[in-house]
Amino acid sequence: MSVMRKIAVVFAVLFALLAVAAGVVYALFDAEAIKRQIAEQVATKTGRVLTIGGEVGLSIWPELAVRAGRVSLSEADGKTDFAAIDSLRVAVAVMPLLSGRLEAREIEIDGLALTLIKRRDGSLNIDDLLAGQKEKPAGEAKPAAPESSQPLQVDIAGLALRNARFTWRDQTTGKTTQLSSIDFSTGRLQADSAAATLAIDALKLATRGSSGDDSFEFAIDMPAIRLAGQRLETPFSGNLGLVSSKLPMRSLKLPLSGKLAVDLAKSSASLGLDTRLDESKIGLQLAVEGFSPLFFNFDLKVDQLNVDRYLPPKASASAGQATPTGGEAPVAKGKADDAIDLSALNELNFRGRVAIGQLQAQGLKVSALDARIAAANGRLDISPMTARLYGGSLDGALGVNARGNVFTVRQKLADIDIRELMKDAIDKEPLEGRGSLSLDVSTRGGNADALKRALAGQAALELRDGAVRGVNVGKMLRDAKAVLKSGQAGSATASTTEKTDFAELTASFRIAGGVARNDDLAMKSPLLRLGGAGDIDIGNSRIDYLAKVSVVNTAQGQEGKELAELRGITIPIRLRGPFDKLSYSLEVGDLLKDAAKAKVEEKKQELKQKANEKLQEKLGGKLQGLFGK
After folding, report:
1. Which of 35, 59, 143, 258 has the fewest CB atoms within 10 Å, measured from its CB?
2. Total number of domains in the chain
3. Which InterPro entries has this protein been placed in (predicted)?
């Protein structure tokens, strides 16, 4: 039996007890004797203590009215209160009862307080009250339904539940949720069981509460509810408010308005809802096509939304674990509270569309976002998903599978400004340029650390007219010249003030075990060519990459003269270290070996040239034209 059903049964038991109490009062006149008898009956049936502390009043003409003061029902231990009512008044017209018609002048309950507790073993503090309500085993015959009695007509001037309080304590999590002030009222309520009609005027519900350190308030107003046959329709309006220390603005409010329609015969319902969140205008259309199992379609439209505005600020880098001496990045360990629980997907079954005009989330800014979403059998798929971003476009799909905690990403970003994208996405600007980026990756795991380490798939990058920031290849080449003279080289830390321009840059990556491998880097500029190969360890946030630079042309002036001396030599540059503290160094051994080969080749050419010159001298220059050089 579900928790909500158990709660409903508890309320039914409470009101049944009140009805029994009212019935006894009708028949007897000794209020104290009545209270004793009711308490004894409750103790016999439930083992709990019922206390009627206030006066019980009765009037029988021209209306049957029952008034009761403080009434409380204990927990099973008989010591603490489980439920209590400060006062109760029910007034029913006498004469209409004789013709099977219930006319109530007023039904008022003041100060209802109810506490539900989920114990550490998973049981509830109402399980003893539900002992007789347990469902019968499969195959066991259910008692025959009683024959229908005389149709009942109900006409109540109004219902009122004032200052009610509800507390839910979950001892398994240590969390307490409270509804500290519940006010519920209606205008005239009319029902006819024969015609299957129900009409309620001016239904209002308002409540305030808290959950942990957060507080909230909710209010809704339905001017009229009409049920004819099995169809119900009602407009509504209200507001929802939240106060939380986790919100940057501390509090927010949502005005609500819309229309609800339900068709019980077809197990269908529809909801139209409009609201505003600060400057965001939000509209939702929801259509339920089945109640059991629940299935629905939705269409959500938002003109603009800044999600980051409602998220807690990111923790500063200094608040995290410090990098140990030597540049080794700390390996993050998954924590229990970082666990990713996708079990809720197993209960979802829907299709829908989300359209957002302007969106900012986790620093990323997109426009014209259009996503189709479907959930079934523990899977959530967003496909297709299109948007405009950073001067270009996005087209792709996302997938999540609760079975195995599997995530898939397939995205194609075309003609984007890579610098602005990376600046917003990772708060770093390692690249400049415009071009395309493609991703086709998957991963699985129970926390973020596991997801990074299990990443697999492929990616590709094509950029034009940009720059690699943090590395000045020209300066490295001048350092290489010094190495050739001294035979020694040092290392340096990448600097955001340095960069190397390029006309084209392409690279592809094969990703396995959280490590992206590249073997085909190609960067071209008017003066240089750069290739390379290496690993980007995403799981450990480190890089180990060997880039190879060669001079293909030289500029004018002193710098051009210096670079000319390096033509024909490949300069190996090693980049390594954590993402946030990269360093680079020249591979001295390879550089000197390459330089030595170049010197040998140069010496060969020199000897060949001298041999030719001597031969030309011996022949007196007569054979010069024959041999040419």
Report:
1. 143
2. 1
3. AsmA, AsmA-related
